Amino acid sequence: MGFLIWVESIQAGDGMIRERKRSITREIVRFLELVDGLNVQRIERERLTKMESRGTCVLCTFASKDGIKS
């Protein structure tokens, strides 16, 4: 995130530099979204593992969130 802020702070009058700055910013944002998505998957996997270790019916939990009665 710090690198993104640093790139955004660059002042440039040259069009080629501005375009490259935009390109780098898009690449950084895509990378951060990828990392965030991986983190969400890891957290969800850990949550399901905890539920299973406690003997909680995972399918029943998802069904109740969707409003489906078991």
Q: What can you see in these coordinates?
A:
The mean pLDDT is 80. The protein has helices spanning 2-9, 15-53, 58-65. It contains 3 helices and no strands. Helix 1 packs antiparallel against helix 2.
Count of DSSP E strands? 0
Write down the overall mean pLDDT: 80
Q: What is the overall silhouette?
A: rod-shaped
- Whole-number radius of gyration? 21 Å
The total of helices stands at 3
Distance between the termini: 44 Å
What is the H/E order? HHH
Sum this structure up briefly.
The protein has 70 residues and is mainly α. It has helices at 2-9, 15-53, 58-65.
Features:
rod-shaped, 70 residues, mainly alpha, 3 helices
List the helices and strands and how they pair.
Blueprint: H1 2-9, H2 15-53, H3 58-65
